[in-house]
Design goal:
5 strands, 3 helices, binds zinc ion, HIT family, subunit A, globular, binds guanosine-5'-monophosphate, alpha+beta
Amino acid sequence: MGCVFCKIVRGELPAHKIYEDSETLAFLDIYPMTDGHTLVIPKLHAERLADLPPELAGKLFQTVQKVTARLTQALGAPAFNVGFNDGRAAGQAVPHLHFHIIPRFPGDGGGSLHSIIHKPNTRPLEEIHRLIAGSW
Ligand code: 5GP
Ligand code: ZN
């Protein structure tokens, strides 16, 4: 398979690995947004969140929690933005699900998740709520 992150999992491409267990892997982003910018992936290839076997979701988030604590310990990072681009319209470039852990520091000039996009509701909140909450 040509997936670049699967190649890292298989050891066919180098990476600065930070943590690894049987189901997950964490390594430094090659173009870091801040010091310690880390990617956390499932070893199993899943392109989108919807493709991830639900039983792996907890493991993946446990690794995010572990790595975040380690980044605080190692780099003194007092804060983080944690998230992922799920799908091309959301900016996903590598088609293998990956959490970004972006250490944040006072005065680093960055914004919050709210700065990704600001497109006010085109429909009333009540209508949006009815569509979502009523459709389980
Ligand atoms: P996306 O836009 O898909 O959420 O982000 C992909 C991320 O993967 C980018 O931040 C990019 O710098 C990183 N990346 C892409 N290719 C490689 C690679 O070969 N090695 C590492 N360590 N990071 C990569
Ligand atoms: Zn993959």
